[in-house]
């Protein structure tokens, strides 16, 4: 947090002799800045906290978080359910859990629609999301508006490096809700939603967009994440 405070102090010219971008460091001050001609390109960086009011648990909250409620899957440790090595050997726990929060069962929150409003006003440069619930898409953001840093359920692929056949959201949904482990129709390997597991690289789009977007941004809004988590959904 000290790093962020120093970064924003320098970037927003708070406490310096340079022109101040914010007349005061409050929500009202940010709102006035966003209504000015100086704020044209906004980046939103969002995590699991923006979806909890939709009924989707976050990952790390004590007692209510997802990791605190995985006893029934008999995992060696909670994070194993999202580790690629464990998934390849034991995919059953992940697909049982996926049924509980699969896209299509939840509606976007006011935070998601706030980002759509920014898009409609022409101010949204990009939304970087740690979430895998696809609610940004449901709210009306297009793929080009998004960097889904931890992947998405929107598409799935065969995990065999020699195959990698792609499957749709509806195909995967039918398998999961039929309590069937999704298998590739071509090679019979397991098919995994395109979410990023521990042990996998972030999408290439994350790195390519990050390099250019943050140099252009007039404002960075962080919602629903402490920026301290390692991996899925902050």
From TrEMBL:
Main location per the UniProt record: cytoplasm
Keywords: Metal-binding, NAD, Nucleus, Transferase, Zinc
GO annotation terms (biological process): regulation of developmental process; regulation of multicellular organismal process
Enzyme class: transferase
Domain Deacetylase sirtuin-type: 20-234
Enzyme Commission (EC) number: 2.3.1.286
SUPFAM superfamilies documented for this protein: DHS-like NAD/FAD-binding domain
Localization annotation: Cytoplasm, Cytoskeleton, Microtubule organizing center, Centrosome, Centriole; Midbody; Myelin membrane; Nucleus
Chain sites annotated for binding Zn(2+): 158, 163, 184, 187
InterPro entries tied to this protein: DHS-like_NAD/FAD-binding_dom, NAD-dep_sirtuin_deacylases, Sirtuin, Sirtuin_cat_small_dom_sf, Ssirtuin_cat_dom
One Pfam family named in its UniProt record: SIR2
Molecular-function GO terms, alphabetical: histone H4K16 deacetylase activity, NAD-dependent; metal ion binding; NAD+ binding
PROSITE patterns documented for this protein: SIRTUIN
A single GO cellular-component term on record: myelin sheath
Top-level division of the source organism's lineage: Eukaryota
Record field: catalytic activity: N(6)-hexadecanoyl-L-lysyl-[protein] + NAD(+) + H2O = 2''-O-hexadecanoyl-ADP-D-ribose + nicotinamide + L-lysyl-[protein]; N(6)-tetradecanoyl-L-lysyl-[protein] + NAD(+) + H2O = 2''-O-tetradecanoyl-ADP-D-ribose + nicotinamide + L-lysyl-[protein]
Necessary cofactors: Zn(2+)
Active site, UniProt feature: 150 (proton acceptor)
Keyword Zinc: yes
UniProt family annotation: Belongs to the sirtuin family. Class I subfamily.
PANTHER family to which the protein is assigned, alphabetical: NAD-DEPENDENT PROTEIN DEACETYLASE SIRTUIN-2 (PTHR11085:SF6), NAD-DEPENDENT PROTEIN DEACYLASE SIRTUIN-5, MITOCHONDRIAL-RELATED (PTHR11085)
Identification of the protein by name: NAD-dependent protein deacetylase sirtuin-2
Gene symbol of the encoding locus: SIRT2
